[in-house]
Design a protein that fits this description.
about 650 residues; alpha/beta; Immunoglobulin-like; Jelly Rolls; 9-stranded mixed β-sheet; 8-stranded parallel β-barrel; 9 helices; globular
Length: about 650
């Protein structure tokens, strides 16, 4: 049960979808004659999220094929990913540790290369020698049986650390796709110290994998949120600028593994520029300080003559980046978060950080850490308390925040056991966006009306989607499978319906969750990426009101997933962009195709339908990267109305062409 609303609700947006439950199996859709002028969709709804999580940045987006290029230790104190074959592992390298290879000793890393795409690899290694001989370090790529594929001999320049460049070229056909290889550093003459090894494919673009870059560009991402996520609550941004060899390698503060800081602020900005996205930076309000945040704003936005602007210029970027959107903290309510706090602490931090950041650049837009991750009545009350506290404090001091963040992530299989069938869990999960529209959003409107001040903040849904954890996640709906893609389309629809509230939404995520995936150097996409592309390219700017009648279902509460009533089997929204009309259709039904009858306001000549369909458990793999992929067909239409069948567990984008 929801708590009683206060008497002054935040006025809802005019309805853009009117749904009436019917008893027959046919879904009837009637489009209004024109788009609703007030029902505009902020293009920033088509945004994404990049976090330093697991293999999301290093060994994925970042193209250096070497893991742990600076020979540093994991949390357990052991040398990460390298095998010592007689070599020594010592302190005092270019930055941190290094390896010393005496004649005949070596250090080895097992890796894969994108040989399906490129056969040339450009390397840099820092070396020195303290001996009197003229030492030689041989860098070689070898097959598992020891066969040498390519090698380069590196000579040192004496006792000073100096960089040496080298090329490795592999013969065509010598290596199969995704084959495990060994990269060996071996002193073939004398004694050599080695540090900071980078080996990039020759086709890397600004250090980024070109396959990742190509796919990311196709998504038409408006804003890219970075660097976290939980990661940001322990991130020191200054460690990620300047010469890469001088940046420290540290344990990832949130997710384990190593953080080399090689993909820092300037690399992120270059990536955004390459894919046509604008940057959205989330700052460390966990164990960070307002002063650090203000300095980051200055580094990004200050003029070249200022101290931070001069530092940016010295790092090769004289012109300001003009980052407009800044987020203060990530999920500071969670005990999984470094520096987590209570509602009062979050409110206090927000004002301290905001004041410091606006003093540097008063034109930036700031997102406050809100809360919207609960489903039960007590949980929803906790969300209200948290959001009210930060809104009240901000309004009383410097004015309402520009945006309030929400993370309405659906965690599965939390709270469920094996007594629930897959279909039961699936239907509850696919009902969650409907519940969010019908229950959570109206409650949030009340909170904003009562505590939001003037002008009322809008909402930034800076993480969303199905997330997974714990045992058995793979046997429930999840972000890797078609089920995650269907859920993503449904949540886009929910945000469209709250278009007056939702200004920003960052899909979870570009390189984790339902993402661009890299497995042994082969890049492919999970089904949810296709949804991000389909909606990002359709990109409705205004909504067209639709009236829908059709069958629906009800779900009881299951685990943490709330009960929901009158959930349409077929979910429909329609939009327009520069005269192009699009109808977006999702079939929630996991096993049954559904017939949809669409009536347009005037005669249509034909429609193009792009559909992503598949068993909700199906996904893409390196062996079958296009197992779940969109198909396209043309339907000729004679008049204003036509019927079409939408497959089970599917997402369809229907582009209309009107008769002249």
């Amino acid at each position: 049960m929801m708590a009683a609303s206060v008497p002054v609700p935040y006025p809802p947006a005019p309805a853009v979808v009117v749904f009436q439950r019917s008893e027959d199996d046919l879904t009837r859709v009637t489009l209004a004659s024109h788009a609703q002028p007030a029902a505009s969709i902020d293009p920033r709804v088509f945004s994404n999220f990049l976090e330093h999580l697991g293999g999301s940045v290093y060994e994925a987006l970042w193209a250096n094929v070497i893991y742990n290029p600076q020979f540093e230790a994991e949390r357990d104190g052991m040398l990460a990913r390298w095998s010592l074959s007689g070599a020594q592992w010592l302190e005092g390298g270019v930055r941190g540790r290094y390896v010393r290879c005496t004649e005949g000793t070596a250090v080895v890393q097992r890796l894969t290369l994108p040989t399906h795409r490129v056969l040339r690899y450009r390397g840099t290694i820092w070396v020195r020698s303290l001996g009197s001989k003229h030492p030689v370090l041989t860098v070689s790529l070898r097959k598992a049986d020891g066969t040498v594929l390519a090698e380069a001999n590196i000579r040192t320049g004496g006792s000073r650390w100096l960089p040496r460049r080298f090329d490795l070229r592999i013969a065509p056909g010598a290596v199969s796709s995704r084959e495990l290889l060994d990269l060996e550093l071996k002193a073939t003459v004398g004694e050599v110290d080695a540090d900071m090894l980078e080996v990039f494919p020759a086709d890397a673009v600004d250090g980024v994998d070109p396959d990742v870059l190509r796919i990311a560009r196709s998504l038409r991402i408006e804003l890219l949120r970075w660097p976290g996520g939980n990661f940001v609550s322990g991130y020191r941004w200054k460690q990620g600028i300047g010469l890469r060899e001088q940046r420290p390698t540290t344990p990832n503060p949130a997710w384990g593994g190593l953080e080399t800081h090689h993909f820092g602020t300037d690399e992120f900005m270059a990536f955004c520029r390459r894919i046509g996205a604008r940057p959205q930076i989330c700052i460390n309000a966990g164990n960070g300080t307002p002063e650090e945040a203000a300095a980051w704003v200055a580094y990004c936005n200050a003029e070249p003559g200022t101290p931070m602007g001069s530092l940016r210029a010295a790092n090769g970027h004289p012109e300001p980046y003009n980052v407009r959107v800044w987020e203060i903290g990530n999920e500071l309510y969670g005990d999984w978060q470094i520096g987590h706090t209570d509602a009062a602490g979050n409110a206090r931090r927000f004002e301290e950080f905001r004041s410091a950041m606006l003093a540097v650049d008063p034109t930036i837009e700031i997102i406050a850490t809100g809360k919207g991750d609960q489903f039960t009545a007590p949980g929803l009350e906790g969300d209200r308390v948290w959001n009210s506290a930060v809104l009240d404090a901000a309004t009383a001091s410097g004015g309402p925040p520009d945006y309030l963040s929400l993370h309405p992530l659906l965690p599965l299989p939390l709270g469920l056991d094996r007594t629930h069938t897959y279909e039961e869990i699936y239907l509850s999960a696919m009902a969650h966006p409907h519940w969010w529209s019908q229950t959570f959003v109206p409650d949030l409107r009340t909170v904003l009306a009562d505590h939001g001040g003037t002008p009322q903040p809008r909402v930034a849904v800076t993480e969303w989607g199905i997330i997974i954890g714990g045992p058995n996640w793979h046997i429930t709906p999840n972000h890797d499978h078609q089920s995650g893609a269907v859920y993503a389309a449904l949540f886009y629809h929910a945000m469209f319906r709250a278009h007056d509230l939702v200004a920003i939404s960052n899909t979870t995520a570009l390189m984790h969750g339902g993402c661009i995936r890299k497995d042994r150097s082969l890049v492919f996409v999970l089904p949810m990426v296709h949804v991000s592309r389909l909606y990002g390219q359709a990109r409705p700017s205004r909504l067209i009101p639709v009236t829908v009648s059709g069958p629906a279902y009800d779900v009881p509460q299951r685990g943490i997933m709330p009960a929901a009533a009158a959930v349409p089997w077929v979910d429909v929204v329609a939009g327009e962009n520069k005269g192009r009309w699009t109808v977006m259709i999702v079939n929630r039904d996991p096993s049954k195709p559904r017939t949809v009858e669409i009536t347009a306001p005037r005669a249509v000549s034909s429609v193009t339908v792009e559909t992503l369909a598949g068993d909700p458990r199906s996904t893409n793999t390196p062996e079958d990267p296009d197992h779940v992929a969109p198909t396209q067909k043309e339907i000729e239409v004679n008049g204003k109305a036509w019927s079409m069948e939408v497959p089970p567990s599917s997402v369809s984008i229907v582009a209309l062409r009107f008769r002249r």
